[in-house]
């Protein structure tokens, strides 16, 4: 409990100096123009702001009742909405993106957090797929569950031992590559927390040596096919 309070309190305290730094840089640029140093400050403060926001999200998801209320919404539509901009980004980067989304699947839960989870998985696939790589998303009803899978090819040979740590907070398989992509090892932890809050499971597997796949299973008791 003390740990959770510390993360929340520290995150809120960090917001103020970050805002002050960003404002100060804006003033400097108005008086002296932009350069590589001010550009770097903007990038780093933006990165830290995202990390602070993610820490607050993780702290909230650690609470016993993170969602004040759950509503029934179209899971199929949510996946379509989140996936659309990623499809365009993948095309712009010369990557092949394919999707198969079963229609009329609804979920009783928190739509914002579910969309965030889907976005995290697609963003992860886009960032870490190889040049001219392939990304695939599938949503379908599977037995007593609804299943969401997101996979991508990768230039690196996958280490199955490392895959078991991907959901650990701040874990990064390749620190040098993450510095290029802007990752800091929190996103997948948030995705896992969101899935668990919806009584589901999330797993990661290697498909061969150069393809990674994330699988989300949500129980049928909270998911139904709309009539």
In short:
The chain contains 7 helices and 8 strands.
Overview of the structural elements:
With 227 residues, the protein is an alpha+beta fold. The protein has seven helices and eight strands; from the N terminus they run H-H-E-H-E-E-H-E-E-H-H-H-E-E-E. It has helices at residues 2-32, 36-61, 75-92, 111-128, 160-163, 175-181, 187-197, and strands spanning 71-74, 96-101, 105-109, 134-142, 145-153, 201-206, 211-219, 223-225. The strands form two sheets. The protein has a five-stranded mixed β-sheet. Helix 1 packs antiparallel against helix 2 (36-61) and helix 4 (111-128) runs antiparallel to helix 7. The radius of gyration is 19 Å and the shape is globular.
What sequence of helices (H) and strands (E) makes up the elements?
A: HHEHEEHEEHHHEEE
Form type? globular
How does the major sheet shape up? 5 strands, mixed
Question: Cα-atom Rg, whole angstroms?
Answer: 19 Å
Return residue spans where pLDDT drops below 50 for at least 5 consecutive residues.
Answer: none
Given helix and strand content, the structural type is alpha+beta
Sheet with most strands: strand arrangement: 2-4-5-7-6
**Helical segment count:** 7
Beta strands, count: 8
> Whole-number average pLDDT?
83
Which range does the strand content fall in? Answer: 15-25%
Distance between the termini: 43 Å
- Helix percent band: 40-55%
């Amino acid at each position: 409990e003390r740990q959770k309070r510390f993360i929340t309190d520290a995150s809120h305290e960090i917001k103020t100096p970050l805002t002050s730094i960003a404002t100060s840089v804006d003033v400097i640029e108005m008086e002296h123009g932009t350069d590589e140093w001010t550009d770097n400050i903007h990038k780093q403060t933006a990165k830290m702001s995202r990390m602070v926001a993610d820490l607050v999200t993780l702290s909230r998801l650690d609470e016993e009742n993170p969602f004040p209320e759950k509503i029934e919404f179209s899971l199929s539509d949510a996946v379509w909405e989140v996936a659309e901009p990623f499809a365009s980004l993948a095309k712009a980067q010369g990557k092949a993106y394919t999707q198969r989304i079963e229609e009329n699947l609804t979920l009783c839960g928190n739509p914002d957090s579910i969309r965030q989870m889907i976005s995290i998985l697609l963003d992860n696939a886009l960032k870490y797929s190889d040049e001219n790589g392939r990304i695939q998303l599938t949503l379908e009803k599977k037995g007593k569950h609804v299943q969401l899978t997101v996979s991508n090819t990768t230039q690196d040979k996958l280490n199955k031992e490392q895959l078991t740590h991907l959901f650990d907070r701040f874990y990064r398989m390749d620190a040098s590559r993450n510095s290029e992509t802007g990752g800091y090892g929190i996103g997948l932890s948030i995705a896992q927390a969101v899935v668990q809050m919806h009584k589901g499971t999330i797993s990661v597997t290697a498909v061969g040596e150069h393809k990674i796949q994330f699988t989300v299973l949500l129980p049928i008791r909270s998911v139904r096919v709309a009539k």
